């Protein structure tokens, strides 16, 4: 069966690709989950309109991400933690704590976009990467201080 993809799908292709898959896979998995629909002339026209809407939406989110990136580049967050010997923290600073501190300052940031490789376990100043968009990354300065 020939289908048109409505979403990017890793194993099949990108939005708008016309591909040939087995009938059962299309009827039972792809079409009910709105990942794809049958390849007909009317559906191709509808897909073109959907692509235009997605392009406008993508452009708007990109502009918003760039604006937020400029604001976050100058922002810094201070997190106070209890400290033991050798300036090692009791516990660790996680992406959730950083997101909460940013939310208190008025930035709406989800913890999942903060790319903290591993929790911070020492005092100091850290540059934490934040992925706002697939093409927009920024860094937030995090100060971990003694409580």
Q: What topology does this entry show?
A:
Blueprint: E1 2-5, E2 18-20, H1 23-30, E3 36-38, H2 41-73, E4 76-81, E5 88-93, H3 95-104, E6 120-122, E7 124-131, E8 137-146
Parallel strand pairs: 4-8
Antiparallel strand pairs: 1-2, 1-3, 5-6, 7-8
Would you kindly provide a written description of the structure presented here, covering whatever features stand out?
This protein is an alpha+beta fold. It has two domains: 2-62, Ribosomal Protein L9, domain 1 (3-Layer(aba) Sandwich), CATH 3.40.5; 68-146, Roll (Ribosomal Protein L9, domain 2). Helices cover 35% and strands 29% of the residues. The protein has three helices and eight strands, in the order E-E-H-E-H-E-E-H-E-E-E. Strands 2-1-3 form a three-stranded antiparallel beta sheet, covered by helices on one side. The protein has a three-stranded mixed beta sheet with strand order 4-8-7. A hairpin with a 5-residue loop joins strand 7 (124-131) and strand 8 (137-146). It is elongated.
